[in-house]
């Protein structure tokens, strides 16, 4: 057979970039911010030397300016951070705030999350919002005019899955992941565990994987429970990944690579770690869709939360 008649194998994996997913949200935000005078003010606190945290801060500032929000980065020492947060809580000119973690890298970071006033918590990490999320309570008031604030990184992944059509719009709202199996490799309190809870509350069977074990998050048979339950399993990554419609990975280590051979043919794969957890060439031999990063969608969700909180502060709730 002549060489010109030998065809190269065709790779069927579609790479979807966060910038494309974020486009519609950015357009919506540009219109919404025009309804505010003065425009919402976001303050970011940086109290570490982590390059990834500084990059996130720079992305946030750039996006705020492009869309029309006010942004101020306040660089403080670890020891002065708590006082700086309290001061911002009392400042009526500040509508939302966020902390670029890690700060201390221990339980004190969890304490700092609770210092931020719920009225200004754009990251959705305060106790009230976290409790609502885990209990599948979606509103702050009985009249259902004020939606609860969701953590922006897990919310970004939800929005990406909606964009990709993983959520079934024919099924009733709140159940649209029914029938889907998802593996999440990360069980941090900031992203991995909340993400597993959100996806399970929307009807999915979610396997939450960390270095110790695999937990199952589900609303039970026929998704009859109002909120998810968590059960321990004796399963391993190699048991759950091959049966998953979606694999989401966020391991904060440049040494970790998800085993591509475990990805089911046609599966959706999403990476939310700044360390690339997937080996793209081998992954594309199996995955149907690959989302290599989510940063721009995360910032869009952050600003959607800021719009909501500012509208609540001004007694004019906006549904976004």
TrEMBL record:
Locations listed in the record: Cytoplasm; Nucleus
GO biological process: one-carbon metabolic process; purine nucleobase biosynthetic process; purine nucleotide biosynthetic process
MF GO annotations: methylenetetrahydrofolate dehydrogenase (NAD+) activity; methylenetetrahydrofolate dehydrogenase (NADP+) activity
Domain Tetrahydrofolate dehydrogenase/cyclohydrolase NAD(P)-binding: residue ranges: 151-213
Record has Oxidoreductase as a keyword: yes
CDD domains xrefs: NAD_bind_m-THF_DH
Protein keywords: Cytoplasm, NAD, Nucleus, One-carbon metabolism, Oxidoreductase, Purine biosynthesis
Subunit organization: Homodimer.
Similarity annotation: Belongs to the tetrahydrofolate dehydrogenase/cyclohydrolase family.
Job of this protein: Catalyzes oxidation of cytoplasmic one-carbon units for purine biosynthesis.
Protein name: Methylenetetrahydrofolate dehydrogenase [NAD(+)]
Organism: Schizosaccharomyces osmophilus
Gene encoding the protein: mtd1
């Amino acid at each position: 057979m002549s060489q010109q008649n030998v065809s190269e194998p065709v790779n069927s994996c579609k790479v979807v970039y966060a910038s494309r997913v974020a486009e519609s949200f950015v357009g919506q935000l540009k219109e919404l911010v025009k309804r505010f005078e003065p425009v919402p003010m976001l303050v970011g606190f940086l109290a570490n030397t982590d390059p990834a945290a500084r990059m996130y801060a720079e992305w946030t500032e750039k996006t705020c300016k492009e869309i029309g929000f006010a942004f101020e980065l306040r660089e403080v020492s670890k020891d002065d951070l708590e006082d700086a947060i309290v001061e911002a809580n009392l400042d009526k000119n500040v509508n939302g705030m966020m902390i670029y973690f890690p700060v201390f890298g221990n339980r004190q970071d969890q304490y700092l999350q609770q210092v931020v006033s719920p009225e200004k918590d754009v990251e959705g990490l305060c106790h009230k919002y976290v409790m609502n999320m885990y209990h599948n309570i979606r509103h702050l008031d009985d009249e259902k005019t004020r939606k609860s604030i969701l953590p922006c990184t897990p919310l970004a992944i939800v929005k990406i899955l909606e964009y990709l059509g993983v959520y079934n719009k024919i099924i009733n709202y709140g159940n649209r992941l029914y029938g889907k199996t998802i593996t999440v490799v990360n069980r941090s309190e900031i992203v991995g565990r909340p993400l597993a809870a959100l996806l399970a509350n929307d009807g999915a069977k979610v396997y939450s994987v960390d270095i110790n074990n695999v937990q199952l998050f589900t609303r039970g048979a026929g998704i009859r429970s109002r909120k998810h339950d968590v059960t321990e399993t004796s399963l391993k990554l190699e048991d759950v990944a091959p049966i998953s419609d979606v694999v989401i990975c966020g391991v904060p280590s440049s040494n970790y690579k998800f085993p591509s051979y475990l990805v089911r043919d046609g599966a959706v794969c999403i990476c939310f770690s700044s360390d690339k957890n997937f080996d793209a060439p081998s992954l594309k031999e199996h995955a149907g869709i690959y989302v290599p990063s989510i940063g721009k969608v995360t910032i869009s969700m952050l600003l959607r939360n800021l719009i909501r909180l500012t509208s609540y502060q001004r007694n004019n709730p906006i549904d976004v």
